[in-house]
Each structure stands twice: as structure tokens, then as C-alpha cells.
User: Fold this.
Amino acid sequence: MPASATSQAQLVEFVAATSSSRSEAEVVGAAAELAATTIDAEVALLLDGEEVLSSTGWAPGADVGPLVRALGTCGSATVDLQDLGPVTALAMPVPSLGPGGQLVVARLDDGFEPAERALVMGMARLLGVSVDAARALEGERDARAEVEATAGERLRLLAALREREMLLTTLLEVQRAISHRRPLEEVLDLVARGTSASLGDVPVALVLQSGPAGDRLGVVASTHPALTATTGDDLVALAARAVTAPGTSSERVGGEVRLAAPVHLQGRALGALLARVAPADVEAAEGLLAAFAAHASIALGDADTAAITRQAFYDQLTRLPNRALLLDRLERALARRDATGRSTALLFVDLDRFKQVNDRYGHAVGDRVLAECAARVEGCLRADDTAARLGGDEFAVLLEDVTSEGHAVEVAERLVHAVSAPLRSLGIELGVGASVGVALAADGAGDAHALLGEADLAMYRAKAEGGGAVVVFHPSMHAERTDRLALEADLARAVDREELVLHYQPVVDLRDGRVLGAEALVRWQHPVRGLLGPDVFVPVAEATGDIAAVGRWVLREACRAAVRWRVTAPSATVAVNVSPRQVADPGFVALVRDALRDARLPPEALVLEITESMLLPGGAPVLQRLEELAHADVSVAVDDFGTGYSSLSSLRRLPVDELKVDRSFVRDMGDREGLAVVRAVLDLARALGLRCVAEGVEHAEEAALLARLGCERAQGYYFSRPLPEGALLEMLAERAAAPRPAPVPVPRQPRRRPARAERRDPAGAPRG
Ligand code: C2E
Ligand code: MG
Ligand code: MG
Assistant:
């Protein structure tokens, strides 16, 4: 191989070896040995001035000064080295290593040939290239490290973003739960769990004000049960501080920090979201906790609004939609019907006998009956139909998509049946019923209010039929309603216009036919309709509240009239009917006293007729009023006794002086059972020391039988119809002063009502 070819190959090897080094230091460190091997020299040095960068065959620490100086600037010299003796040294510059950079090789023998000198020069140059390359690489590496460092930063950022995304997802989940109106507990639980997950599964609790006055704090949601168990009190104390603090509060307990962010409702802090975190995480956790606390606030505010909405549209007792919601749904249904041509029906449901149940068993039971009836009504419906409570014992049912009137009536009948089933499960004997009015949108007005009005009118008619009935609306019912409204308007002015009159039905002593007194029965001399009986207008007056004025007038007028009769019959009494609403008025006793005083009627001449319902439990103020009247020597009679479900035993304790046996029992005395009832009432009255008056005596046989049973007093058409005052006075003159000797008057026309009385009292028609 020619020398040049050899040199070339040696150079390639040298380059390959040096460039495999990864840094300048490595290149420099390995260069001396490589050069010595390549050129076959005993000594090789890499120098920067007199500094040895690397060496081979050179004693470490030995002074290179003499060699460097001997090589001088020409780059070649024969030098006597201490350890080796005389050597030939050759130096080639390596500028990359600095101004004094050179590669030095030395041989013991006779020196370097020109090709070898070229090889050394080549090596020196390539060494420079390698050093430069290593330096460049190092720069690159640093740059890369820097780039990599930035990328790491980016990665961390990415991770943070991911975390943030997870946080956003969790918050979004909470928001979704809020907007989907998930139950509040569920949302708050989600808030607690979301906070915990976002903070790296730390314990989290949500503490809110509780108790009826909102004055206590309680844990409503927590992620770690142990959290509330072991540190509950501490947490609550921290929450209490958070409630008063403006922002997030924190406290260090041992190796951890407890954080609290306040939760608000309508601008007022009412609790806090709490978390236990590591001290290093406090800063990051604070913001996060505040974000979740804000969501809890939104959820609470929303639940609050939802509760308010519920209150506005649902009946609290039965949980049924109320009138407002019903009308809204009805309007929508009607709008849809316009588009589809299907029919919509509205049922107006009014409970029968609910008032009696409520009076007898009290409001708590009454409420349970209403709730039970609501459930029964709902039970009769399809999912698309709406049952609503309109108020009191009134319900309505909206039937969408009705095929025919018959279909609606069928549902209504099913409903009557369901409501009328016994209520024994509620522990009550007395059942209720339902009267239902049906109105169909197809044949009525298109507007919701109008349809409700029509169903109401039909219900009214069902009630008039005695309850338990289903009546379909008919346009003629409008006329009835107009009629009733007109009657109400007239009635409001009747007292002032002096249109009321009193008729008096004598109360007779069955033993001798003497007239003992009379019951005052009101009539209304209507300017257009003629003389109206109390059955026509007293219920209207009760409903409108005009009964107060009517009752006051009756009481005062009856007292004055009694004073007039007593001129003729000094011991005659007057019985006055009072309605529950009158007695419910706290001024009732004063009213009675004033009427007696103004008329100068002695109190013992007055009998107040009350209904049995007033004696029922729950009427404490009424009873107290009756006691006061009893103390004032006014008598109290229970009217229509036996029809009102009052408990017989309670009578003993009540301030009652007289029982009026209801007309229906007198009428039924022909049966064994009817007779037994009358006997029982008479026995009861005797046992309790009460007077007893039999009402509605129409026949001589009845009078005779009652007398035989020991009943001393009676009233009825057989003796006299209710009479105008003049006629009563006549009768009193005749029978009060001079009692008839016969124990029972002999009827002139048995089994027929007295014609005279019929003429005299056109309004006193028998009650159905
Ligand atoms: P009531 O207190 O039980 O009065 C007796 C009713 O029975 C009267 O009807 C009377 O005319 C009727 N009647 C009397 N004898 C007979 C009879 O032999 N056969 C039949 N079939 N009926 C007889 P009226 O006057 O129509 O009064 C009806 C009800 O109106 C009264 O029943 C009473 O509850 C009420 N009422 C009458 N006046 C007043 C009043 O001034 N205030 C109040 N709150 N209610 C009154
Ligand atoms: Mg009466
Ligand atoms: Mg009566």
C-alpha cells in the first residue's frame, strides 16, 4: 500500500474514532492516544499553550515548558526528554483548541518522513474539525435540552389543561344536574364528589344551615364518611366561620390545611364547602373550591325557585296541581284541540258530606280525607289526564282526547264510585261522596275559564239532585246561574229594603193543646218573585255572608214580636234559628244581649235553635258562647235532632235545654224502627232533663201517639202552619189564655193538610 494510501486510511480511522466521541472533552481526551497510535509515536500531547489537554507516553505532571519552547514556531525539534532521552518532536496547530492549541508527537528514532508530517497535519486539522463538531453537537444538545425542557413545560401545561377539562366536565355535570332539576340532595352530593375528584380525591363535605329556624349547621353531603364522623364538629365550626368570612377561609391542622368556601342563597351565606388538602395544594384548591361552592349556591337557589314554583302551582295538601296550573293545562289542551279536532272534557268534582266529616272529626282527619279522595280521583285517570284541587273540597279533572260525552260521563261515574267507597282505613265511620259536573269543550265555550264555569254549573245541579250524581252541562244552566247571581244581588239589599218578614209557627202543648210559644221562620217578600221561603235564600245568604245581616234582623225582630205577643200570652216563648256562621262570630253573645235589652224581652223567653254540627268537637269557642248564653238564661235547642251525627253522650256535657225531634222521625213513626228512634230520643231527653219538641206533626195519629209516648210539645201543620204575626196573635188569644180541655186537638180533616194554613202561608211548603 503506498504511503499516501496508508495515510489516507489512517486518517479515516482517526476521524471515525474521534467523531464517535460525543463531546469536546471526550474528543480531546482520546485524541492524544489516537494520534500516537496512528503515527506510531512514543509520545503524543494535546496542548493549549503549556496546558496539557491530553497526553500519552508523557509522565503526568511533567513540565511541558521546555518542549513547547524547543518546538518554538517552526514546529519541529529534537529534544532530550527526562524519562526517554533524545526524541524527535513534531507539532501541528489545532486552532479550534485555542491560540496555543497544538498536537505534538515525538519519536525516539530518527524522526518523521514528509508523508508522516502530512499525516500529523491532517490529524491536527481533523482534530480541530472534530472538536468543532463536538462543540456544535454540544450546542445542539443544549438547544435540544432546552427545547425538550420547553416541551416538558408544555406537557405539564397539557396535563393541567386536561385536569382543567376534567374540572370543567365535572362542573358541567353539576350544571346539567341543576338544569335537569335533579333532586337537590343528588346535586349537592355531586358537588361534593366533583370537588373531591378535582382536588385529587381529598375529603370534602358540604355543610348547610338546617333546623326550622336555619340556625344550626349540618353536613348535607360528604365524600368520606369518616370525615364527618371524626371531625364533624371541627368542620361545622370551620363552616360557621366561613359563613361570616368574605371569601375562602383556611386553617392549618397538623400536616394538612382545611379550606372552606361559603355557599350562598339569595346573597346570604348559609353554609360552606369544606376540603382537607396538603399545604402545597392550598393555592390551587382555593379557586377550585370557590367554583364548586358557587355551583352549590346555584343549585340551592334553583331548588328554592323550584320550591317556590311548586308552591305556586301545586296544592300542598294533596300535591295535585292547583287551579292556576289546571287552567294553564286546560288552555293548552284547548289550543291543541283546535288543531286536532279532538275533544276535551272538564269534570268539576265537589265532595258530598265533607263538611260534616270535617266538623265531626276535626281538621286533621278532614285533611287526610281530602288527600285520600285526591288519590282516589287520580287513581281513576290515565297518565295524560290532570286531576287538580281547586280549593276546599273541590277538585277538577281535565280529560284530554275524549271520544264522546258518554266517555267523560263514564270516567265521572267511576270517580263518584271510587270517592264513595268507605273511609274506614282512616278510622272514620262517616263516608263522603262526590257530585260531578261535566263540560265538554266541543259543545261549549273555547276558553278555559268558561269551560270551568260550565262544569261548575253542572256540578251545582248535581249537588241539587242530592249529591252522588253526575250532570252534564247544558246551556240552560247559564240562566240558572244568572238567576242565582241576581238573587244574591237582591238579597244583599233585602234587609235594608225591609223585604224580610217573619212567620211564626206555634209550639203546642200536646197534653192540653195550649200554645206555649212560636218558632220564628224567616221569609223574603221579593218584589218580583213573590214570597220566598228560607230554603231558597238562607243557603244563598250563608254562602255570601249576608246571613249575618239577615240573622241579626231576625233576632231583633223576633224579640220585639215576642214582647208584643206576651201582652196576650205572658209566658209565651220565641224560638229563633241561628246559623253556624252567626254563632261563629265573636260578637254573637253581645248581639243576643242587645236584642233582648232593646226589645225588653226577658232572656228566658228566648230559645236559640242551633244545628247539631255546632256541638261537635272542635267548636270550642262556639260552646263557650253557648255557655255564656245559658248563664244569661237564654235557652238553647238542638234543631232537627238525630240527623246530624252528634254523639249522644256529648249532649250531657253541653249547654242544651231542648231537643227538637226531626220531622223525618215523626213521619216514620208508623214503622217499628221509626217509632223506636222517637222513643229513644224521648228517653234520652228525659234522662238528661231536657225538653223535647216533636217537629212536623201533620196528623192527629202522630200527635196522639207522641202524647202517649210522653212527648209534651209539638209543632207541625196539624196544629198550624207558620203564621203571620196577626194570625199568631189571634191563635194565642184563643189558646194561650184558655187551654182546651181535650188532651189532643181533634183533626177536622184527618190525613189532609189544613186548608186555612195553606192559604195563609204560601211559602211554608213542606221541605223535601
Ligand atoms: P226548621 O228550623 O226545622 O223549621 C221547620 C221547618 O219545617 C219550617 O220550614 C216549617 O215550615 C216546616 N214545617 C213545620 N211543620 C211542618 C210539617 O208539619 N210538615 C212539613 N213538611 N214541614 C213543616 P221553613 O219555614 O221553610 O224553614 C226551613 C228551614 O229554614 C228551617 O228549618 C230553618 O232551618 C231555616 N230557617 C228558617 N228561618 C230561619 C232564620 O231566621 N234563620 C236561619 N238561620 N234559618 C232559618
Ligand atoms: Mg228551627
Ligand atoms: Mg227543624
Residues 114-179 form the longest helix (66 residues). The pocket of magnesium ion (ligand 3) is lined by residues 639-640, 660, 695 (CB under 6 Å). The CA atoms of residues 348 and 396 lie 5 Å apart. The chain is about 50% helix and 20% strand.
